[in-house]
Target: asparaginase
Amino acid sequence: MKNILVLHTGGTISMTADASGSVAPSERNPLLDADLSLNGRVKLTTEEIFNVPSPHVTPELMLQLSKRIQQAAATGMDGVVITHGTDTLEETAYFLDLTISSDIPVVITGAMRSSNEIGSDGLYNFKSAIQTAASEGARGKGVLVVMNDEIHTARYVTKTHTTNVATFRTPTFGPVGLVTKDSVRFFQELINQEAVNIDHVVENVFLLKAYAGMDSALFEVLPESTNGVVIEALGAGNLPPATLPGIRSLIERDIPIVLVSRCFNGVAEDVYDYEGGGVQLKKMGVIFCQGLNGQKARIKLIVGLSNGKTGSELAHYVDNAIS
Ligand SMILES: NC(=O)C[C@H](N)C(=O)O
Model:
């Protein structure tokens, strides 16, 4: 029998739709009444650690969740399942992946349809997540996201559709496993990454998206207290030339700038050697982050800074996304 800790945090999976179709938190989380012991194979211990829609989730709440999971691992739990709203699920999942050092399975899930809607996917995803957390194959694989029968890594999964139940996808690399009625199968090797220890989260790390004709205006209005900036750059990792004065002034202020691509697939690299091209940006000191999307790169920058990393150590930590 596996002892699994369930941590409910809120989101559509625990919400109810009213007669007009508007969705809001339920008076009582319907998942609390679900009997999902998988025919006596698992014993669930359930906590509502918080109950918020995921747009209300902050890095501070992610840290609280991370600490609770580490404590559960230290006190003998065999696995952890987290239910979460889908809007920021990928950010929480990646934050946990970067900060939890235990190798017990940690699985996060959510739902696209609330508990009383036709075709509600919550209970089913919850069951799949429990199955995964109770499986031997999930050990040592970092934080996993289970939705719609698929298993994805926290590092690369992203929400791709506003309503479709098949919203969670892993661009470029694909899912790492599959949940069937009775089994959990993994079909990709996972890359391990060492977790870092943090006891607080650094604030004022911003995310900007590049666009045709972008200039330095947004860089110039960043507050004095800015600790870091992530830019979703164009294509393989290029920016319009008019952004360069803004980039230069941030680098002169020792504010780390991390660059990812705004493209859905692929990695950012210093390929182009023209004004604003990746070669020039890298020479200026911009950190290229390979394979993460903007919101994940921001989480990684927050975790790195909160761990006290600076300079080349921070650059190595942030850019080392694939190897
Ligand atoms: N499907 C969902 O869970 C979306 C909801 N707005 C949330 O993230 O809390």
Summary: The chain has a mean pLDDT of 95.
